[in-house]
Amino acid sequence: MKKVLSILLAGCCVCSLISCGQSAQKDTTKAGTEEAVQSVQVENSVVETIMTRRSIRQYKPQAVEREKMQTIVECGINAPNAMNRQAWEVRVVDNADYINGVTELYKKANPKVAEDPTFKNMFRNAPTVVFIARDTQSESSPFDCGLLAENMMISAWSMGIGSCCLGTPARFMRSPEAAEYLQKLGFSEGYELLYCIGFGYPDETPAAKPRDAAKVKFVE
Ligand SMILES: Cc1cc2nc3c(=O)[nH]c(=O)nc-3n(C[C@H](O)[C@H](O)[C@H](O)COP(=O)(O)O)c2cc1C
Questions:
Q1: Residue 37: pLDDT above 90?
Q2: How far is the CA of 29 from the centre of ligand 1 (A)?
Q3: Which of 33, 41, 164, 204 would suit a FRET pair with 136, their CA atoms being 20 to 30 Å apart?
Q4: Ligand 1 mean position to 128 CA, how many Å?
Q5: What is the mean pLDDT of residues 205-215?
Q6: Residue-wise pLDDT tens digits, 94-114
Q7: Which residues have C-beta within 8 Å of that of residue 203, sequence separation ≥ 6?
Q8: What is this structure's pTM?
């Protein structure tokens, strides 16, 4: 735990402070609170990591070191989850033959994707892919898996590792064409692949996509 926290904090410290709005808001009035939702002055490293994370779709070629992936998955499985049932299973793949092999099948089924000159593989070009399966008997497993994923993506970002949550490739992995590759992941009976997350060292710095702060309201 101590090790995980120190890695998190060390990673966060190298990032510069950011302001996601025009100015700091110390106003405690309702208007001030609403303004503050839109304009977050970052004051701690966890907030900074959350606010600077972006989905990454272009990566340096090297896979993420397994030791770092181990830390990332440990952060994942320490996420809150219903009754601590841990209704998930996680597989980490950094085998280029696996990634390229299933990508060939994906290209056969979706020939247009390969027309994109930046296309390297079906996992938005990530050299390391984490597959997350949910226990189909557990109603809360999609929430559990979502929290697990966010812990992984945020801890990764704090270490300079980019990620992208991926629904479309998971759909293909569940299709008959990819059955052999899904089987290789060896999920237990009763578990189904929910989504994947690509990880790697970023080779792009995408801008933040706008969020609709009006969806958040404080109720008096
Ligand atoms: C459940 C889920 C599925 C997603 N599936 C894909 C996907 O298949 N391909 C992709 O490029 N991005 C995918 N994304 C990433 C979103 O497009 C991205 O998070 C969103 O546009 C916000 O951008 P940001 O993550 O940079 O803030 C997915 C995200 C989530 C949470």
A1: no
A2: 34
A3: 164
A4: 17
A5: 97
A6: 999 999 999 999 999 999 999
A7: 58, 59, 60
A8: 0.85
